[in-house]
Amino acid sequence: MMKKLMLKRMGTGLVLVIFLFTAVLSMAGTKLEAFAASPGDFILTHTNTDKLSPNETFTTTFKMTNLTDGDIIVSVLDFSLSGIVVPTGGESPVYTIDPDNETVPSTATNKDIGSFEFKYIGDGINSIFPVEVTYKVGAGGFETTVVNLYLNVEKPDDSGPSTPSDPSELKPNIIATVPENASLSAGKPGYINVTLKNISTASSARDILFKPVYSSESPFISVNPVTQMPIKHLGTNDSAELRLSIDTDKFSNEGLQPLNFELTYKNSRSYEITTKYTIYIKVVNFQTNCKLVLTPASSVAASAGGTFQLPLTVKNDGNLSAKDIKISLKGLSQNTFTLVSGTGRTDFERLYGNETRNLSYTLRASSSLKGGSHPITFSLTYTDEKGTVIEEEQEIWIPIAGGGGSILEVLEVKSSMTTVRPGDTFNVSVKVKNSGAYDSGQIKIMADGT
Q1: Domain region containing 266
Q2: Whole-model pTM?
Q3: With b meaning 16 or more CB within 10 Å and e meaning fewer, what string describes 62-91?
Q4: Could you give the angle at the alpha carbon of 49 between the alpha carbons of 46 and 50, nearest 5°?
Q5: Residues 306 and 419 both lie in one domain
Q6: 63-83, pLDDT tens digit by residue?
Q7: How many domains does the chain have?
């Protein structure tokens, strides 16, 4: 009984010695070819094993080994949780994997899924490099997991005192993150919660002040903290919520947009430090630019050589207003239509989103016009809220009564695109009405592209 007990204790001691020896080798990085971590479905590694100094730039390739029976599709690698590295060039820390690299077959080992360039901003105390991976196995749904990788970082010099003699060397390491579902609407005020976490084990932070940094690349035109400033204290491995009130430019593009700011705070020795941050917030835009459309306000009856009224409605189909509006009749002639009275031009100072105005013209149809539909062209010039001048032409089709038994009217011509470039394909729909007393057959509609 005694021998068994002694053997068991010796075995435990042997396992403990082996574990400690392995841990020492791993932390020293003496023979590591890659730094790996596994969440169960796969093993993720990266190839950079060089010792990193603060502010050093490095490139590393991420490799994945599939531990499942099905193919793994990798959608996103998110590095925003890391407080010791940032992407270079001001790029977003959220990377969508290239389609050529996203599939990791069931038998794959160390499959390349992407190479990225980073800047190491740590202080050597923390070497953990968290990566949030979005992936799916086979036909299953996408899921997200965080994998902790490790960097070979230059450790602080332990030959001196236990605390640095220079107070500036005691640095809190504050990372800033926002929830994945955080979003703002263009043109509307909104609120975003930013989580500040001090991942340093060397120093707390106190008297934290927030300052927005505005730039032409960012659509956030007003950013103000709702949280009482300054934040008094942020201990080591501690977190605090920073609530921001944000106004977003109504012309902002949709998608992830950068918000830049600075945090100024003091370390545990009252040394003041300023750090720059960039977080990315999703912007959605429900605004549509102004678009003026002319339509007949009622049915129009005209005959060759006769005078008739043309009532029109001009509507702004967009949400945003149009200003400096000029609507003019164009291309009038003795062979088509002539203006009986007035100048043929109407000006508006402004037309708000979805607003409608009525117009009316008195015209005479040429006696040479044959029965059928004939176009009258209008020129529209207006300015959108960005200050862009928009110039376009629209046609209104006028049915002319003739001597035949059938009268074909072109009621409406619509294009699937308002602006086309060479090589573009688009659809045109034409609405035709027979206003005569007899049926009309074998109708052919031709488009003159001259």
Answers
A1: 170-284
A2: 0.45
A3: bbbbbeeeebbbbeebbbbbbbbbbbeeee
A4: 135
A5: yes
A6: 999 999 999 999 999 988 887
A7: 3
